[in-house]
Design goal:
By secondary structure, the protein is α+β, with helices and mostly antiparallel strands. The protein has 10 helices and 24 strands. The longest helix is centred in the first third of the chain and has 16 residues.
């Protein structure tokens, strides 16, 4: 780590030609990945990225320089480069006194992945592969992966902050392909948590992960294509929350709100969703994939209510956009690594549990679609327009599930969908993913209970 005395020197150098604020973000990470494909371990690799980024505010403009040379001389050179871009009037700098502020750890780790013998790690992947292949002889390929990251960060700034954090992530991935010789269908399941190898003792069963991915692929292989039209749609919990994340969540980040590139800009205190909808972004959930102890600007993590009973209550705000908007940061400043300046990002973002019965949602929906698993898609944060593939879906006729269907997609606008949610189930579950934005790719949870949208455009073949 970088000592507080070195950080003081570097921060003073960064502000030597003017500027109102300076920050150092130092990172030392250890990454591990192992992949099994077609029954064979293809690779097992470790890496150790290490570096630092220096940020200076020139009014409301941000200057960012990063380097992998974390010696005192290397950091001072990076500070000089950042200072050279400042247009503010130079001023005499007082000594910057840093005060150590330890972050409370609410995400205890029991067994780091790299402390576990390689053979035991490989056993996890072989268990996934074997259970997936046992589902059906139509399973022609299984790819399983084990990923781990241990990230140590230090954050210091010209306001006197000196703090750090350790984040440990472990994730299991599975992709199973079913084929009838003419067509292929793929099922996936990729659970993860802010945990070590104890993930497989308490939370994730490798055999069940392989089985569920394979069953999804096999189910869709023989399914007829989905018809298109406007209809009620029930969206299952867990990764179904990706629609809220993409179509609405990004539009509530200050990254989109501050420049007016969000459909929800200027709507605090207004009703933007049905009264049965409450949405939360929570970085405090112990050991969850999108959690942290502090954000990448050194702010303590928070639980933030975004929408309460349909009313917009908060945006997700980082430090710089907060200055521009006249709002306090909310602990949402995140970045992939030292190579990125932070901006406002989601953490564990979900629609909160409601009071409705899930069976009743389907029983009273008439004809429609039951979307069990969501796939990829695209969204325009400025308008909220989205298009998402349904990885596993079922046709509903007269309130009864009739058959699986493939090729379905959900098309609409975020604000429109929020107002059309008329049922929210009792049990909220989450799914894990990686979210990309201006500050790189960060781990996030998406989640919701099973919900019903009264009317939504479904695209088919």
């Amino acid at each position: 780590m970088v000592s507080s005395s070195v950080c003081s020197l570097v921060l003073a150098r960064a502000l030597s030609r003017g500027g109102t604020f300076a920050e150092i973000f130092y990172e030392d990470s250890r990454k591990f990945s192992m992949t099994l494909r077609s029954g064979q371990i293809e690779n097992a690799a470790t890496s150790r990225p290490c570096g630092a980024g220096i940020r200076v505010y020139d009014g409301l403009r941000s200057i960012y320089v990063y380097t992998c040379d974390v010696s005192c001389e290397g950091l001072l050179r990076a500070a000089d480069r950042a200072a050279a871009a400042v247009t503010d009037t130079p001023k005499t700098m007082d000594n910057i006194v840093l005060c150590d502020r330890p972050a409370a750890n609410i995400h205890p780790i029991v067994t780091p992945v790299l402390s576990v013998p390689a053979g035991r790690r490989a056993e996890i992947l072989r268990a996934v592969d074997g259970s997936a292949r046992a589902v059906s002889n139509t399973i022609t390929q299984v790819t399983a992966g084990l990923l781990s990251k241990e990230q140590h960060v230090l954050i210091a700034n010209s306001e006197g902050l000196y703090t750090g954090d350790t984040r440990v992530y472990t994730r299991l991935t599975c992709s199973a392909v079913a084929s009838d010789g003419t067509e292929n269908q793929t099922g996936t399941n990729n659970p993860g948590a802010m945990m070590g190898f104890e993930l497989f003792d308490s939370r994730v069963n490798p055999e069940e992960i392989g089985r569920s991915a394979a069953k999804s692929a096999v189910t869709m292989l023989d399914a007829p294509y989905c018809g298109a039209g406007e209809m009620p749609v029930v969206i299952a919990g867990g990764f179904g929350g990706v629609i809220f994340h993409e179509a609405c969540g990004h539009s509530l980040e200050a990254t989109s709100v501050e420049p007016g590139m969000s459909e929800f800009a200027g709507k605090l205190g207004q009703q933007i969703a049905a009264s049965c909808v409450t949405a939360i972004d929570d970085g405090t959930m112990p050991n969850e994939w999108g959690s942290e102890n502090i954000d990448d600007e050194g702010m303590p993590t928070t639980r933030l209510t975004l929408i309460e009973n349909g009313v917009l209550k908060n945006y997700m705000v980082d430090r710089l956009n907060g200055l521009k908007m006249g709002m306090a940061p909310t602990g949402n400043g995140r970045r992939e690594s030292y190579a990125y300046a932070p901006t406002s990002r989601m953490r564990n973002t979900f629609i909160a549990a409601g009071k409705d019965d899930e069976d009743e949602m389907i029983r009273t929906m008439g004809d429609g679609l039951y979307a069990v698993q969501m796939g990829g898609g695209s969204v325009n944060p400025a308008t909220g327009e989205f298009n998402f593939a349904v990885q596993e879906g079922y046709l509903v006729r007269d309130g009864k599930i009739v058959s699986p269907v493939r090729g379905a997609s959900l098309i609409g606008k975020g604000a429109q969908v929020l107002m059309r949610i008329d049922r929210v189930g009792k049990e909220m579950t989450m799914g894990q993913g990686m979210c990309g934005s201006l500050s790189g790719s960060v781990p996030v949870n998406v989640g919701q209970p099973t919900i019903r949208v009264s009317s939504l455009t479904v695209g088919g073949k």
